[in-house]
Design goal:
heterodimer; A: about 240 residues; alpha+beta; Ribosomal Protein S5, domain 2; five-stranded mixed sheet; 4 helices; about 30% helix; B: alpha+beta; six-stranded mixed sheet; four-stranded antiparallel sheet; 5 helices; RNA binding (chain A); cytoplasm (chain A); ExoRNase_PH_dom2_sf (chain A); Ribosomal_Su5_D2-typ_SF (chain A); ExoRNase_PH_dom2 (chain A)
Chain lengths: ~240, ~325
């Protein structure tokens, strides 16, 4: 099998980016009418919609925690999101796993003790898939949680990095992801620099790990700036509207 | 999606409709503003996003894939026809009730309704087109073997009442946006055929008969009156609802009564007539919107300007 050349001799990647370059991120909040908070994020060609409901009375009495809120994450993939049309059932193990990653990422950041006996739902919907869905989902969920006014200690910013041929590369797209590159996704709290999620599914030499992780960390800081700008712009817009 | 309504709210809506004024200031036959954008999902053959001003937000995609023809074992029908496969999915972002398996019933109901109207070939006539007017024969590549299958997927992202009408408006717009690659069939002799898909993005087929696709108008009977484009609260007061599918020439393409109340026969005919008139004028409006967008895209393409779709950034 002939492999795609992922890094040109000039040091450019398949989509023309430099190794340390992120794809374009555009985002907005408050896109839905029914949800308490919502956000839409485009990360290159990956498009994600996040909706947050709550805090509200827990649906199942058995799950109620008397001292804090429970987080519930549901993850859906549109059948037309990938190149080949594919329907996924609600019990797809892969989707459940992604949902639990997102849940674990947010549990230490959302101040759940403020909302005892209640439930916070995060619904994620992938509309278009082009690599890096987990990072896009976490970033969109952060924005939706902020839009819903849920207390958090910090933003959560996620970013992937990997080792493409001979050097570390930030933010892998679908072609790079699917051609056997090792990829690490981390989620970070930008203020303290703490990492709340590390996920890697392929092999990477331990000597290279540090480079990749520090690159992903840089990516997270950059994503934080982008998200923060959107949030502040939207808040200013809201303040302006309310002043009239 | 609210599931409960107080007696006072119900009374307010009922009396309002009796006086021909609704909670949001509309009259009984008034639709809310419909916002339509096509070509929003780049990896599909055609897509559209439709929004109704009160919140309903639906993304419809059409994907054309090659597959084997489906022959009816009893009648031997279908050997020279393509297929349209529909599915509707209500995302939990639209309503908390759609979480987990909560939307399954509604998904099935909407999917069945769409399938009936879009892909069933009319039993009485032997014409090649489906009830929706789409020429299925044009979708066939090699008779008896391969055909184009159009997968129509509707995704309900936000709920503000009147899902059915919005889904059909979106589907119609997505089919208008659909481009199918041209194919070249080679005859190898002794009944053997081979085909090649030409991947020229400029030279593609449109879906034949797309102008005749119907849209749905849902009429909600509240008290002795009926209204169109109900809001979520109005839907809760609805005794009976009637879905009328109508195409641009005013032909009835489907009819379904829902909910538990009854409709008097005289009122039924009046409602169908009413739905037909509204449907025809709505199709005119939608066609103008689709045409305006297609023209502006074409102009930009000819001038070499980038086509920028707003998608979710439209406020």
């Amino acid at each position: 099998m002939s492999r795609v050349e992922l890094l040109s001799p000039e040091g450019l990647r398949v989509d023309g980016r430099r190794p340390e370059e992120l794809r374009k991120i555009t985002s907005t909040t408050a896109v839905l009418s029914q949800a308490d908070g919502s956000a839409y994020l485009e990360h290159g060609n990956t498009k994600v919609l996040a909706a947050v409901y709550g805090p509200r009375e827990a649906r199942h009495r058995a799950l109620v925690l008397h001292d804090r809120a429970i987080l519930n994450v549901e993850f859906n993939v549109a059948p037309f999101s990938t190149g080949e049309r594919r329907r996924r059932t609600k019990n797809d193990k892969r989707l459940l796993e992604m949902a639990s990653f997102v849940k674990q990422t947010f549990e230490p950041v959302v101040i759940t003790t403020l909302y005892p006996r209640s439930q916070i739902d995060i619904y994620l919907q992938i509309i278009q898939h082009d690599g890096g869905t987990l990072q896009a989902c976490i970033n969109a969920a952060t924005m939706a949680l902020i839009d819903a006014g849920i207390a958090m200690t910090d933003y959560v910013c996620a970013c992937t990095a990997g080792w493409v041929e001979r050097e570390p590369a930030l933010d892998l797209n679908h072609i790079e992801e699917s051609s056997d590159t090792s990829e690490v996704t981390i989620a970070m709290l930008p203020k303290s620099g703490k990492v709340t999620l590390v996920q890697m599914e392929s092999r990477l030499h331990v000597d290279k790990l540090e480079d990749v992780l520090s690159l992903a960390g840089k990516g997270c800081k950059h994503i934080h700036q982008v998200i923060d700008k959107t949030i502040r712009d939207r808040a200013e817009e809201l303040a302006r509207k309310m002043a009239v | 999606m609210p599931s409960l309504i107080s007696p006072a709210e119900r009374d307010f809506i009922l009396k309002g409709i009796e006086c021909n004024i609704r909670a949001d200031g509309r009259q009984r036959p008034d639709f809310r503003e419909v916002i339509l954008e096509t070509g929003v999902v780049s990896q599909t053959s055609g897509s559209a996003r439709v929004r109704i001003a009160g919140g309903t937000d639906i993304l419809v995609s059409v994907k054309a894939e090659i597959g084997p023809v489906q022959v009816d074992p009893e009648t031997g029908d279908g050997a020279d026809k393509g297929q349209i496969i529909c599915s509707v999915e209500c995302a939990p972002s639209a309503s908390q009730q759609f979480e987990g398996r909560g939307a399954d019933d509604l998904n099935n109901e909407l999917t069945q309704m769409m399938t009936r109207i879009l892909s069933n070939t009319s039993a009485t006539s032997s014409s090649a087109s489906s009830a929706a007017g789409i020429n299925l024969s044009k979708l066939c590549i090699i008779p008896g073997q391969q055909c184009w299958i159009l997968y129509v997927d509707a995704l309900v992202l936000d709920y503000g009442g009147n899902l059915m009408d919005a889904i059909f408006m979106g589907t119609r717009a997505a089919i208008f946006d659909t481009r199918i690659p041209k194919t070249e069939v080679q005859d190898l002799g002794d009944g053997q055929f081979e085909f090649e898909v030409l991947d020229d993005a400029e030279d593609t087929d449109i879906v034949d008969g797309r102008e005749d696709m119907p849209i749905c108008i849902t009429l909600n009977k509240i008290g002795a009156r009926h209204i169109v484009d109900a809001s979520p609260l109005e839907e809760l007061c609805t005794e009976a609802k009637l879905v009328v599918a109508v195409n641009r020439s005013g032909e009835l393409c489907g009819l379904q009564k829902g909910q538990d109340g009854g409709i008097e026969p005289s009122l039924l005919l009046e409602m169908i007539q009413f739905g037909k008139t509204i449907g025809q004028s709505l199709i005119k409006q939608l066609d103008a919107m689709i045409k305006a967008e297609a023209d502006s895209d074409l102009g930009k393409r000819q001038r070499g300007e980038p086509i920028h779709k707003l998608g979710f950034f439209a406020q």
